[in-house]
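Continuing the batch. This is chain 6 of the set; chains 1 through 5 are on the previous pages. Same settings as before, nothing changed between runs. Recording input and output for traceability.
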Amino acid sequence: MRILSVHAQNRSSIGILNSANSRPVPVVKGWIGARPAVSRNRLTCGHIVVGRRGTPVVAAQSSSASEDADVDNVVIIGSGPAGYTAAIYASRASLSPLVFEGYQAGGVRGGQLMTTTEVENFPGFPEGITGPDLMDRMRQQAERWGSNLLLEDVESVDLSVRPFVIKGTETTVKAHSLIIATGATAKRLNIPSEETFWSRGISACAICDGASPIFKDQELAVVGGGDTATEEAVYLTKYGKHVHLLVRGPTMRASKAMQERVLENPKITVHFNTGVEDAYADKKGAMGGLHLLNNETGEKKDLPVRGLFYGIGHNPNSAFLDGQVELDEAGYVKVKNGGPWTNVEGVFSAGDLHDVEWRQAITAAGSGCMAALAAERYLTGNNLVVEKEKSEERVSESEQKKKKDSEEKEEKGKMSMEEEFNVYADKHRGQYALRKLYHESDRLVTVLYTSPTCGPCRSLKPILNKVVDEYSGKIHLVEIDIAEDPEIAQAAGVNGTPTVQMFKNKDRVANLPGVKMKNEYRKLIEGNL
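Output for chain 6:
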């Protein structure tokens, strides 16, 4: 299936966590971090001057060359088309950008495109490309040109000092300029039973959870009337028996092409002027259906469905700014002259964080380009560019091909090993390995359930693999693709991907849906060794 239009309000991943503001100066608030930060820099005090654009800024006191060398030219917070494009342009300008890609906060690394199916309107891909594949390519390109990518969240940002201070969950840095590409996160309905059925019938990601056994050949519902909702409705027809699209108004807001695709699909019924009051359970406690309200007549009725998927838009990830950057009434960053400039000199916005009009993947990428170019001009004009040695030289095309061929050969080797099956190996794939290890191994067995189109799965796999490497010879990791082995997922009660389960002596000792912090996985492993 292919989707014609993709909105960039789905594009960017944020890496912001809240921490208490105990200082009199404005400090960005975020969510609680998982680990104490390792400080890399000291705070440099400064005095107030007037910037080039007439904006009061805090100018740093003079510092030694060694101190300057410890300051990044530009830090980019967030990923997605905006963040990765900014990284590509900044790295090609020899600015050695540091990118906080995000991990949990505000979405998954790569942004909401990681939860999108076919993208047919991004230039350069005449046959279309999946959202996760597009983001993987952008990430690889940013890395190739020398961007430093950190897969972690940001706890706080202090914009009252120069250089700016950016505190991540594991890393604290200073930077002369900052590009914020934190995008938006999916809205929820907040119906009374939402938490009860969350990941057990209610989901904000059809691409992640649609292939789950609980939805196979079932009546499903999608709420929303825009492109996101219509895309999800079409996608779910691959798995569900029938899909009900619940539109609160008299018309859909989706593009004409998507409206036609939905209305012409015999497996989709559109319910106009329809709101969701709540979900209800069946006799076994599973989600049994929805209580609906006709917004025009006031009539109430029940709709028996096993799944409800949200496609009702997104909120800009700007609350963490805590007044340090000017926002509009809806929470979008205010920019000057249609460009990336905020009211804080040296701080630039990219993507959906300020785009209230277009919200396309391609426009998000364009704004990332503008932010990087503006940051370069700002740094150069203020003599702030710090020359840095690249941690790794740019890889040539031939070297890239050799690396790719080597990785493919290694992957084929892994497949051969999996077919032969070695009970002493640490990592495995498929139900045969899981059954053998479950019955024969005395190690802790960690099972990662994934699905082919799951963007968050792509982010979690390398993280979990690294955690498992820390306990070599002590645990097993088995990957189960729920599309290939649906009966295994069903027997395990897996309702969405990614999900991690841990088994010890045939007893399940942990069930973790979604992406968690590395420390949480480590704690569970160590507690069951």
